[in-house]
Amino acid sequence: MYNTKKITEDLFWVGANDRRISLFESVYPVPTGVSYNSYLLMDEKTVLLDTVDKSVNHQFLENVAHVLNGKNLDYLIINHMEPDHCAEIPTIVAKYPNVKIVCNAKIQTMIKQFFDFELPEEQYMIVKEGDSLNTGRHNLTFVFAPMVHWPEVMVTYDTVDKILFSADAFGSFGAIDGNIFADEVDFDHRYMDEARRYYTNIVGKYGQQVQMLLKKAANIDIQMICPLHGYVWRKDLDKFIDKYVKWSTYTPEINSVMIAYASVYGGTQNAAEILAGKLAQNGVKDIKMYDVSVTHPSYILSDAFKYSHIVFASTTYNNGIFVNMENLLHDVVAHNLQNRKIAILENGSWAPVSGKLMTEVLSGLKNTEIIESKVSLKSSVKSDKYEELENLAKEIIESMK
Ligand code: FEO
Q1: Which pLDDT score is estimated for 294?
Q2: pLDDT for residue 141
């Protein structure tokens, strides 16, 4: 049965939730699920903005049919060709054969790569940056946003109701729990961490391209943001946009320390705990610790974007970096983290080399300083290492000033 949500007098959410999905994009755990948002504008001409993932197609098709209520579907705007949003294009084309697909040239190429359906060229409206579509009362303008998150991405701006259909930007992990607007839920406590984890892992690498979109957005009056995942924003837009400014410029949100450690028999963990305690005794607040063998790297990467200082502590394993730590470090580098201060702690019972190897992996991070003091353990913390940990804590605190 249909489950739609009214956003304005003539705009409806026709998406759906998936709470059974275990790994979004086959990588990211989503313990609170994910929403696939699609929007239907009921103007003189009817316009569907994006579709959904195939896992929720039944709910989506019922929703579209319910809102159309027997009317024809005139336009399908495709902002992003990733299959979590485009999977139902063939079904929509089959069900509403006169529909015109509105997209840019790159999107059209991808449609033909992904799907086999034949649609006459006159049923494509290929748009360029700044082109518009008038649908009666509304006027929709298309703004290109390459690499937020794929190269073909564009966003759609309704110049009449001042609504930005922002594609993946301003989205979040987590299903929509009944409410549709971000101001109807305790977003800061329930969703902000998941919005950060979504941003950093999905588009974190493309900060520069996100900044370009933010610059374009700064020139238009935006009263509402309708993303492809998560809640719709109609209040406190500046607060969320400010987060995007910080994340896309790789600016830490807090001046504090995150410690990620890999420990097989407890020696490295012990050193990490002692270091955290010494930092706390010296006034550092809100320290965060992760065991990389327990927590999925997407959570740790997300906090790496939040914290100003990061300690990576790893045992040596197979004459290299412990496997989960190595995976995390490559993830951090791949996501283009910048502007951080990093401390290294290594362990190894006969030939500790993880510190040197971790430093090598991290040396490519832009505007990032590796703090000089490095703690090197052999198996476990002894009294001389206690002093070294104290010195490292002091050096980290000094660099926080
Ligand atoms: Fe939600 Fe890039 O797809």
Answers
A1: 98
A2: 98
- Label residue 372 by pLDDT band (50, 70, 90): confident
**Ligand 1: which atom is nearest the Cα of residue 203?**
2
- Please tell me the distance from the alpha carbon of residue 209 to that of residue 203, in angstroms, as a whole number: 9
H helices within 96-154, ranges in order? 105-114
* Block residue for tokens 């024809």: 72
Pairing of strands 224-226, 163-165: parallel
pLDDT at residue 52 in the model: 98
Q: What are phi and psi of 116, to 5 degrees?
A: -110, -5
Pick the residue whose CA is nearest to atom 3 on ligand 1: 82
* Residue 4, SS3 per DSSP: coil
Task: At 74, list the tokens.
Answer: 């005139």
Ligand 1 centroid–CA 152 distance in Å is: 12
| pLDDT tens per residue, range 73-82 | 999 999 999 9
Tell me the sheet residues that pair with 340.
none
The Å distance, Cα 169 to ligand 1 centre, comes to 9
Instruction: Give the angle 84-90-95 at the CA atoms, nearest 5°.
Output: 120
pLDDT average, residue stretch 339-351: 97
For residue 374, what pLDDT is reported? Answer: 87
Alpha carbons 210 and 64: distance in angstroms, whole number:
31
**Exposure of 184 by Cβ count < 10 A (0-12 exposed, 13-18 middle, 19+ buried)?**
middle
168 within ligand 1 shell (Cβ under 6 A)? yes
**Helix intervals (H) in 221-342:** 237-248, 267-281, 297-306, 323-334
CA distance 245 to 240: 9
Question: Which ranges constitute the DSSP H helices of 96-218?
Answer: 105-114, 187-190, 192-202, 207-218
pTM: 0.96
Distance 299 CA to ligand 1 centre (A): 18
Distance 114 CA to ligand 1 centre (A): 15
Domains of the chain: 5-248 (3.60.15.10), 254-400 (3.40.50.360)
For residue 333, give every residue at least 6 positions away whose Cβ sits within 8 Å of its Cβ, in sequence order, or none.
361, 362, 364, 365
Residue 153 has pLDDT above 90, yes or no: yes
pLDDT at residue number 328 = 98
